[in-house]
Amino acid sequence: MPRLFAGLEIPAEIGQTLANLRGGLPGARWIDPENYHVTLRFIGDIDGVSANEIADLMSRVERRPFEVAVRGLSSFGGKKPRAVVAAVEPSRPLIELQSELERLVRRCGLEPEGRKFTPHVTLARLRDSCDRDVADYLSVRGYFPTKIFTASRFVLFSSRASTGGGPYLVEDSYALSA
User: Fold this and answer.
1) At 165, is the pLDDT very low, low, confident or very high (cuts 50, 70, 90)?
2) What pLDDT, on the 0 to 100 scale, is given for residue 78?
3) Regarding the domain with residue range 1-68+90-116+149-173, which homologous superfamily does it belong to in the CATH classification?
4) Residues with a known catalytic role
């Protein structure tokens, strides 16, 4: 059974900028830059028939390319931080694409996504990192000039069952060119 998710790839030059922010945070497991992405919809472990149905429905998405802005670092998890992320501006085209993918996946019988869509790029997963260490890290490295790229496609990624962080494989890609 493949474990699938739809997302946007991060261009190599922006990935390198983000990778330069790694280090100096106890308990962080840093994600390799080639695995940076913006998850649009986690699909999960599904059978081949469902995977093919989802891939077919995604091929029908007709949207224009749009700009994506990566702006600053933050963390998820509050008092018990679990990830360091680069924030992605929730632009209208990004939200609309994510919403359309959510509708398509639900049409295939999957449950609705339980969390509110908060676009981001995960840089590190945290284990036993205290909120003070994370706050100190963010105060030093949390700001960087906004990086903008044009999303000209979204992809269907697969991953092996793990605690996250890759490697991710592109199973299919869908041009944004309507």
Assistant:
1) low
2) 84
3) Cyclic phosphodiesterase (3.90.1140.10)
4) 37, 120
